[in-house]
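sorry for the late reply, my laptop died twice this morning and i had to redo everyting from scratch. anyway the thing you sent over, i finally got around to it. pasting the sequence first so we're on the same page, its 506 residues, then the predicted structure underneath. double check i copied it right bc i was rushing
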Amino acid sequence: MSEKEKDWPDVVGDENSNELDTQDDLHKLPENGSQERAMAEQRLVRKLDTRLLPTIFLIFILNYIDRNGVTTARLKGMQQDLHISDIQYATVIAILFVSYCPAQIPSNMILNKVSRPSLYIGCCAVLWGLTSALTGITKDFGGIIACRLFIGLPEAAFYPGAIFLLSRWYTKKELAFRSAFLYAGLLTANAFGGGTITIFFGFTSMWLLPDYVRFLPSQLRLRVSIRSNKNILQPNNTRWLSQSERRLAQARLSEDAGEADKDNSEDSQLQGLILAVKDPKVAIFAFMCISQVLGMSFVQFFPTLTETLGFNTTITLLLTAPPWIVSAVICCLNALHADKTGERFFHIMGWAWTVILGFIIAISTMSTAGRYVSLFLMSSGFVGLAMTLVWVSNAIPRPPAKRAAAIGIVNGFGNIGNIMGSYAWKASWGPEYHQSIAICLSALVASTLFALVIRQMLVRENRKLDADERAAMEGANRARVEEAARLEGITFEQAMERRKGYRYLY
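ok and here's the structure:
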C-alpha cells in the first residue's frame, strides 16, 4: 500500500463488500432499454452537442483558415511580393506537412494520456494562432517557410485529437454525424478568410471542451468515507457534467462495444502504438488516406482553379464559397444517413466517385458553366473524406491507446498526400491542368481499392462472429468487460452475453 493510500479514511467492510458500492448506488443508472434511460441519454447527448460540437467546429474553421491562408494570399500577389517561384510556392504549401504529419502520432498518444485534453488542445490552438499571425509579417521565402514549418506542430494536435476526443463521448452510431459536423467547419473555412481570433478561441476552448471520463482501479475508485459520504478521489474530471451524467457517458460507450472504453495496466501508450502498427487494417487505412488526400489536393489550389473561370480576383473569391457551403451541408446529411444505417464504405467512396466525375468534366471542357459545375463535384469529395477517421475509430475500437495511435497514424500518413499534391498542380500545366487531374483521378481509384479491401476484411470478421458467437467472447478483454458490468449494474456473465452482439461497421 502506498503512503497516499494509508492517508485515506477507513472504509467499512472489505473490498468485496456491498458497502463499497455506495458511491455507485448514489448514481445508479436507469434500467437499460427503459424510457427513463433513453431520456437520460438524450439529455446527455444534447448537453455534449451544445457545448462540445460548436467549440471544435469553430476551432477547426480557424485551424484550416490559418493553414490555407496562403492560397488566398497568392491571388492577392503574395508570390510577387515575396519574390518566390512556382516551385518555391509549392514548397511553402508542402513544408507545413513535414512537421504536421509525423507529429500527429505522438500527439494523439499524449492526448490519450493527459487528464485535461481541454488544456492540451486549447494551448495548441493558441500556439498555432500566434504562429499564423507572425506569417503576415514575413518578408522573404525563408521567413514564410519557418512560419509554415512551426505552425504544423501545434496544428497536428487538433483534427486527429478532436476525432479521438469525440470517440470518447459518442457511440459508433453517433460518431459519424458529429465528426461530419466538425469537418463541415473545414469546408466552410474554404469559403472565408481568417484572422488572429484563433488565439481567443484557443483560450476559450480550455473551458468549453470536456475532459476525459477517467477509469480507476476499483480499490481506488470505491474508497469512500461512509461517515462523511464524500469522495476521496473523483473518477473523472469534466466540470460541467454531473456525476450521474459522467457515469452514463461511461456506460454508453461500454454498451456500444461490449467493453469499457479504458486502458488497462498493460495498455501503455507505447503498447497501443505497437498494437496499431501490427494491425494490417491500420496500414491499409493509411494508404487509403494517402490516396484520398492526394486525390483531393486540388483544395490547396482551389482559388487558382476558380480563377480559370476568367473573372477578377474579387469575383473569383466570391465564386469560391458556394461549392464549399453546399459540401458542408451534404457532409452532415451524408453522415446522418451513415449513422442511421451503420454503413461506411459507400458513404465514403461514393463521394470519391463524384470527384472523378467532376475531373472528367473539367478535362472535357473549358466552358465557364461546365468548369464551375466540376468545382462543385470536386469539393463534394470531402464529404467522404470526413468519415475516414470515423471508420478507423469504428474498426479499431479498443483499447483506447491503440485507437488513439491508429487515428494518429492514418491521418499523419494520410497527409503525405498533401505533400505530394503540393507539386501536382504546377502553374505551367494550367489553365487546363490535365496532368494534375490525371494524377488525382488515379489516386482516387487507388483509394477505392484500399477501401474495398478493408470492407471485405470487416465483412469476414463479422461472418466469423455470426458463425461462432464465442469468438466475440474469446476476443474480449476481461478487465474491460468487468468494468462494463459494473457501470451497467449487471453481472459479468450478463455483460459477456451482451458482448456477443458486437459487430464491426463496414
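The two ends are 47 Å apart (CA to CA).
thats about all i looked at so far, will dig more tmrw
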